[in-house]
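Severity: low
Component: inverse-folding endpoint
Summary: output formatting inconsistent between runs
Steps to reproduce: submit the following structure tokens with default settings.
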């Protein structure tokens, strides 16, 4: 296969996966947007977390809400739990890496907030612990997942499982979905 053929095939596969997710999960995507809007209108905060590329997505998404997505509007309350290197390394050293997000949820999140967890497997102990900490505080848990959804699927109030085993494709779809949700939330919060 030539590089051009590889590019065409890769993008066609991504487009097919995006189309499948749109067909199978449009209602779930709308439900996540509704969850975010309800929390923000009630003065709540959106918290985002994940590992690796999903950690980068958490930072990207929090920025879209705080700064802007498509249009100028009031800042919306959003925090990425992946950004404070001192906190992350101290917690990992003193309590273990499994606690790096849960500890922040314990300190910062309150009833009415939303914790949005991105995980391509739904099996990472630190996102599972974060979901457990959130549930104990009355924080709504949203899971954007892949593969089978893992144990995190059962802990999420709203879960969207991308039907793929390919980590990169799952993350690409997660970001596309979160951008769509951000657009929906921004439109509704301006109104």
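Observed output (run 2 of 3):
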């Amino acid at each position: 296969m030539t590089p051009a053929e590889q590019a065409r095939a890769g993008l066609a596969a991504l487009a097919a996966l995006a189309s499948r997710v749109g067909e199978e999960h449009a209602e779930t995507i709308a439900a996540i947007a509704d969850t975010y809007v309800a929390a923000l209108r009630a003065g709540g905060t959106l918290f985002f977390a994940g590992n690796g590329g999903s950690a980068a997505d958490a930072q990207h998404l929090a920025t879209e809400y705080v700064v802007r997505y498509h249009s100028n509007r009031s800042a919306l309350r959003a925090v990425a739990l992946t950004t404070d290197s001192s906190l992350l390394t101290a917690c990992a050293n003193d309590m273990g890496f499994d606690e790096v997000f849960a500890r922040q949820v314990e300190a910062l999140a309150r009833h009415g907030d939303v914790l949005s967890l991105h995980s391509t497997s739904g099996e990472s102990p630190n996102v599972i612990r974060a979901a457990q900490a959130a549930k104990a505080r009355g924080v709504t848990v949203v899971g954007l997942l892949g593969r089978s959804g893992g144990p995190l699927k059962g802990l999420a109030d709203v879960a969207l499982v991308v039907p793929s085993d390919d980590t990169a494709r799952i993350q690409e779809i997660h970001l596309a979905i979160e951008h769509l949700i951000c657009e929906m939330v921004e439109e509704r919060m301006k109104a």
